[in-house]
Specification:
139 residues; single chain; six-stranded antiparallel sheet; alpha+beta
Length: 139
């Protein structure tokens, strides 16, 4: 009997491995660990951007991100990607992008003409991590 259960457990474990590969615990409260840096500390942007919150990014992942978005209380509220329109039009793929939390309750996608850090026109893809996240980031 155990001989039959072991292969099933192995397959289940392999399927679940991607979930275990990312420990989101350290990211749930600001500030996240290195290599993330607070965007407003390295770019001329406000500390809290209405609609996006306080952003942190690993500079090595620019321009797409992920940007980790925290509310005024430092709670991870969203993961944001900033994908340049020109790159998308030219067939560039942004694969295996990280995510701040595996829980996603809604997704917004919208155009941005450019700003410090991602100057070219790009799409913001915002993954909200709980039902109230959007409201907390708007304030």
């Amino acid at each position: 009997m155990i001989g039959k259960i072991a292969p099933i457990a192995l397959v289940v474990g392999m399927l679940a491995a991607p979930v275990w590969a990312h420990d989101e615990g350290p990211l749930l409260q600001a500030p996240p660990p290195e290599p993330y840096v607070k965007v407003s500390d390295v770019l001329p942007l406000p500390e809290f951007i209405p609609g996006l919150g306080t952003l942190y990014v690993d500079p090595a992942t620019l321009p797409a991100g992920p940007f980790l978005s925290y509310d005024h209380e430092g709670k991870l509220s969203a993961t944001v990607y900033m994908t340049p329109i020109e790159d998308l039009e030219n067939g560039v793929s942004f694969d295996d992008l990280g995510v701040g939390s595996h829980t996603v309750t809604s997704v917004d996608i919208y155009y941005n003409a450019g700003h410090p850090g991602v100057e070219s026109p790009h799409a913001h893809v915002v993954l909200h991590h709980d039902e109230d996240a959007k409201a907390r980031l708007a304030e």
